[in-house]
Amino acid sequence: MNYSSDLIIIGAGPGGYKAAVYAAKKGLKVTIFEDVNVGGTCLNVGCIPTKTYVHSKDFKEAVERQPQVVEALRSGVETLLSHPNITLVREKGVFINANTVSGVTAPNIIVATGSSAKMLPIPGADGQNVGSSTELLGLKELPKRLCIIGAGVIGMEFASVFQKFGSEVTVVEYLKECLPMVDSDIAKRLRKLLEKRGITFYMGAGVKSIDGSTVLFEQKGKEVAVEADYILMATGRKPNVSPDFANAGFEYDERKGIAVDENFETNVKGIYAIGDVNGRQMLAHAAEMQGIHVVNRILGIEDKIRFDVMPAAIFTEPEAACVGSTEDQLKEQGVPFECHKSFYRANGKALAMNETEGMVKLCCEPGEGRLLSAHVFGAHAADIVQEVTAYITLGATLRQLRETVHIHPTLSEVLIEVN
Ligand code: NAI
């Protein structure tokens, strides 16, 4: 292999493959390297399989449907990558120097190598019954007792779905509340709801070791032991960096990933890093938009993508979703704001759907002013937050949102029903 391209992309996850397809459609010759499966973590062992689990009635159906859904999407991505301007190389792309990757040369390179689960460096973490979300999604038998370490996004999503399947779920979290980046009222409501369903939470509890099927931790100065058939380590993810990055000369760090500027360019001109590997926002849609932005930069196209308006959702049942700063963060920042709330129980569609558990919080500048953030807990929270994301991106006010006609009866009426 010895040729040149306009653009090299390392990694065919949502960041990499979307950038490749977009660049190819714009006329660039692209070489994309992928040594595992196209679609990356999101499609193969992340968002898509977990959502398949959420939307399956039992564990058996989830295990059966997972490979079918993943395979259908993967072959869709392969079709997209069969564009005449794209060469897909099914091996690890290795930096030889700042413009050569495994024999291919290009003036622009995008690193989109993603992230992997961060396993706690504690005794017993290498046990056979201990794994990350990837291993848990590979289980063919439902664990009777599941212990989850970490009540972040992954921990809460798996706690919710495995409890529904019938596992006895225990969650052990170091902090006082789950989901530290989510509005504190919503995080608490979600935890309480899952507790009511039978999940046991140990908060303010740092896991110190695992001994076979026993998870050992300390809570309020007391040693506690929890027995489990499977232990899910959901304590964060780390960027996938590789020693050959040094051949290209850009700055990177094992923990923080590749250092980039506001345009996702490294300190070596023409080399960019997008998605989880730059450690900014570990979200598939963030990676995709970063890739589009980089390709636009390469082509000299100006765009107005608002990376500061980044919606996110947690696919528990019901969902939690948000965009913009939480109430606590706005207070800390000293931003003048007012907060408006509404509840699903007063919404006609929610009642008809028997989905009355939920609330909406909208923060805006005083006097029904510019919308700053939205925090939603309840059925289809992600879709509701998506609507507010559009308003925030366009600089609209709460008044304008209220003056927008909403279809009746819909869940999104919860937005115009805020107090
Ligand atoms: P996380 O950073 O969200 O949560 C990890 C949790 O583990 C924290 O609350 C932390 O306090 C706790 N923890 C750490 N050490 C501990 C110990 N020794 N004992 C007890 N608790 C401990 O990480 P998570 O959930 O693994 O997710 C990784 C990344 O993937 C995140 O950036 C997340 O946003 C992303 N992701 C996003 C999804 C979505 O948008 N729906 C779905 C899945 C992952």
Radius of gyration: 23 Å
Bound molecules: 1,4-dihydronicotinamide adenine dinucleotide
Please identify which CATH superfamily of the largest domain we are dealing with. Answer: FAD/NAD(P)-binding domain
Summarize the main sheet: 5 strands, parallel
Shape: globular
Low-confidence stretches: none
Q: What percent of residues adopt helix (DSSP H or I)?
A: 25-40%
For the residues shown, what is the average pLDDT? Answer: 97
Beta-strand content = 15-25%
Structural class: alpha/beta
* Oligomeric state: single chain
| Largest sheet, spatial ordering of strands | 4-3-2-8-21
CATH class bucket of the largest domain: Alpha Beta
Domain module tally:
3
How many helices?
13
Please give the alpha-carbon distance between the first and last residues.
64 Å
CATH topology of the largest domain: FAD/NAD(P)-binding domain
Total strand count, please? Answer: 26
CATH architecture title of the largest domain: 3-Layer(bba) Sandwich
